[in-house]
Amino acid sequence: MAETQEKVIQIAGSITVDELAGALGLSVTALIGELFKNGIVATINQRLDYETASIIIDELGMKDVRLERKNTSTQTSNEHRELSEKAVPRPPVVAVMGHVDHGKTTLLDTLLGKKTVESEAGGITQHISAYQLKHNDKLITFLDTPGHEAFAAIRQHGALLTDIVVIVVAADDGVKPQTIEAIKFAQSANAKIIVAINKIDREGADIPRTMADLAQNGLQPEEWGGDVVMVPVSAKKNENLDKLLDMILLTADLEELKADEDIPSEGLVIESHMEVGKGSVVNLLVTGGELKVGEYVVAGSTYGKVRTMLDFRGKPKGKATPSTPVIVTGFKDLPNFGDRFIEVADEKTARKMALLNAQSEADASASANVTSSDLLRMMNVADNSKVFNVIIKGDVLGSVTSVVDSLKLIDTKGEITLNIVATGVGDITENDVYMAAGDNTVIYGFNVTVPVNIAKMAARDGVAIRTFKVIYELLDDAKASMSELLDAEVVEEDMGEMKVMGVFRVEKTALIAGGEMLKGKVSVGMRGRVIRNKKYLGEVEIESVQKEKIDVKELIEKEVGGLSMKTDKKIQLEVGDRIKFFTREVKKRTL
Ligand code: GDP
């Protein structure tokens, strides 16, 4: 790519209108005007998040500005939004984790007064559910986290999720591998830890030994002078659970958990699935603002208008404040769990942001360094994607001719048409901008200047003006721009094969099955082709891999395990089918 004077603006969470205007070299009024055009009524001190800032920069046509997310905290720690003075207390978000069979489910069920234990289809659960309960008149939000992988996904997004992790340890079994995993998770997520020493009604229960076990693993009991609260309980017999809830609230109080309510709502996707007649059904956890029915929301590469909103019990809810889990319908497509959602002004902004996210996701996997404005340009060219429109202005006729001639010599692999809309001698004019507007045309200036009023006009109309003094730089820039228009190359690699031995769930877009690996390996993120008697039935994407009910990284040859898979259409999987795994990489090409 050509090295034009690219300007990098780093955004740590959000940036104020004032700061962004300064960074862009614009007046605050101009920026507020641009925001207004995009449906955002902003004041000078208003904070804009990364997505909004990138859209605005794109709208301004500032192709030489690149936004970068700046991580202020370490990758794994909670990313707290900067709170205003108006922030109000919010309920704690509590995750219950622990080794399998130590009593997580029982604990939650007893706390919530649930009679039915939801079955874990085929021993594989991958979604988080959320509940709320009231204790001493205060709300507590609980996250049920059957698979640790779900947490990994959320952590990857660097998002705030859990304030407190309740680690359940069976007093008759002590610290086990998943207990340690839970401790590590809580520590890396910067969450407060409370230990529930469970099954104290059991004969073999040994509380001091369990505490010693925990101490050896870095959790020093408060009773022994450490800083970790440990509450002996019996989830089954409902013993001492009030004390546990007291401790959760006490810890929450000490943490002074707060959130802003008068900001556009935001939060996280904690579960999503399709339902007949309803379309996408998405569980959200609100972390800021107030989510209401009728609002437009974006999550990852999808968006929608909140059509219905229910609380975790399925009762209609008009608005949801921070730390509230809700179930909404209205998303056009299924967002991924762990995706952050945000409220936006209108459908147009929602669509644009979703596209931008889609592109940056694709981009991140192609590890390319594309500016957000490039992304939008790539998206806008859906139909005439193979035409690169340019207007050439030069200081003298000779330079215009040589720029034109050299541009024509670029080998576009027969895939891209260079369309020279106009050429001319002299500075860039109003007329050039008019011609370029709305048509994705780049104005190249060679040894000419851009009068300030023209630059402003171009910025307003989203027209890219790029000036150069060295012809090779101009050509490099044109090449890079045309490369963006090339179709990506798809590279696939075979990874392994499984013989299906059990089918546990067949849904429209999801499959859960188990089997034996005949060869190679399978891991999360891989794709697979379902084959029956040499006939191709459809493609799946691996969402989680389990071995003996435990999430694992991969299964290798001869191993038996379970897979949960995402599909585009329903695949009636049967015992005996083969799944051939492969990876698919979409590679950007360059000229
Ligand atoms: P999870 O895998 O951590 O969700 O564990 P479950 O909640 O499914 O519990 C595993 C088994 O332990 C079940 O048979 C429960 O009935 C039993 N259990 C859970 N809590 C207690 C308890 O406090 N006392 C006793 N005696 N059994 C318990």
Concise overview:
With 591 residues, the chain is α+β, with helices and mostly antiparallel strands.
Fold and architecture overview:
By secondary structure, the protein is α+β, with helices and mostly antiparallel strands. Helix content is 26%, strand content 35%. Strands 7-8-6-9-10-11 form a six-stranded mixed sheet, with helices on both faces. A hairpin with a 3-residue loop joins strand 13 (266-275) and strand 14 (279-288). Helix 1 packs across helix 2 (28-37), helix 3 (50-59) packs across helix 10 (372-380) and helix 9 packs across helix 10 (372-380). Residues 72-79, 115-127 and 363-384 have low confidence and may be disordered. It binds guanosine-5'-diphosphate. Guanosine-5'-diphosphate is lined by residues 98, 100-106, 198-199, 201-202, 234-236.
Which of globular, elongated, flat, extended, rod-shaped describes the shape?
Answer: globular
Q: Assign a percent range to the helix content.
A: 25-40%
Query: C-alpha Rg, in Å?
Result: 28 Å
Q: What is the percentage of strand-forming residues?
A: 35-45%
Q: Strand sequence of the main sheet, in spatial order?
A: 7-8-6-9-10-11
Largest sheet: 6 strands, mixed
On the 0 to 100 scale, the average pLDDT is: 82
Heteromolecules bound: guanosine-5'-diphosphate
**Total beta strands:** 32
Classify the secondary structure makeup into a structural class.
alpha+beta
Counted by DSSP, the helix tally is 14
Distance, first to last CA = 11 Å
What low-confidence regions span 5 or more consecutive residues with pLDDT below 50? 72-79, 115-127, 363-384
